[in-house]
Design goal:
single chain, mainly alpha, four-stranded antiparallel sheet
Amino acid sequence: MQSKIKNFVESIVVIVIFLVLIQTFLDDYAVLAGWNWNIRRILIYSGFAFDLFFSIEFLTRFFSSLIRRRAGYYLTEGKGWIDFLASIPLLLFNSGPAFFALITGSGFFFGMGGLLNILKIIKAIRIARILRLLRILKIFKQIKHTGSRMAQRHIAKITTLSITTFVFTLLTFSIISSLISLPSAEDDFIQKQKTNISKFIKTAENGGIPAAVSGFSDYEGNLLIIKHNGKTLFSRYDNPYYSTVYGPGDFQYFRTSEYEFFFDVRELARLQSTYNILFFVIVVMSVLVFLIYYSPHFALTITDPIHIMKRGFLEDDYSLEVEIPEIYKNDDIYQLGSLYNEKYLPLKARHSSSSVKSHSNLTMDDFEDLFK
């Protein structure tokens, strides 16, 4: 009964893994395609639900392993560190704050220019979502290229190392660039708008507010709203349009002593989403190449020859030769396979034909020639 419950839970986790991969892709694609805010809000809610699910799953597995004194094994060989990085940090620093902003109505807070560095770090942490792809390695044993544990462990190890190296390189660069303020599209945008706002204020002081508003709105296509002492001087769209299309993070807010400015920053978000989708596709293709191409290649060139020789040693009536591909004939495993074909199998056949018993156990004395 306990085994059935465990298998059921594992099946649920597998289903959720594939669902969260779809959600991860759609989360960025929705920004790139310009989907309305209502759809993107659903994706934020679902992202929070998935992060919460995987955080609970990680904590459950971790405390269960602690009780069984196998926490170290779970975090290393059991890929628990992947479970951690793809759950709790994302919940605390990405989907959690976004979800909180939505339910409390404080989305306006995220549009303020003073939070630029914090938003950069959050954006960097979001790259870790790609690590969810590595969770499919937990079900690698269900891919029947071979029954070899060595093949499963080897493919999982090399795939994990490759993908985590790629992801952590991106993550490290993103965090470092946000901490030391390397030039970025966001910084250029902020500086440009500050310069434009200064020009607007000078024009308003010298030529009047109407002329300044008209000129600013004509040449600055990203301008959404201008307010003066709380009164709206300019709005590119009506309120229903804003509530349908725009969400937290889609605008940048600036304030001076008298004026308030709102700018459309969706183009910056599209740029970041383009990079995220590119990274996502690279990781997906890398995982598929390892699992679909390299996995059977490893089985063909490593585990299959070992499997044939193992059966030949253990089973008296098994005499299948190791097939030696011409291109790999100088590999160590096939050199061993050649010795198996040319030395061991003839000795085994001679012993079998000269033996009175139909089934006899071979001894080391029968193989003296093999080791000369």
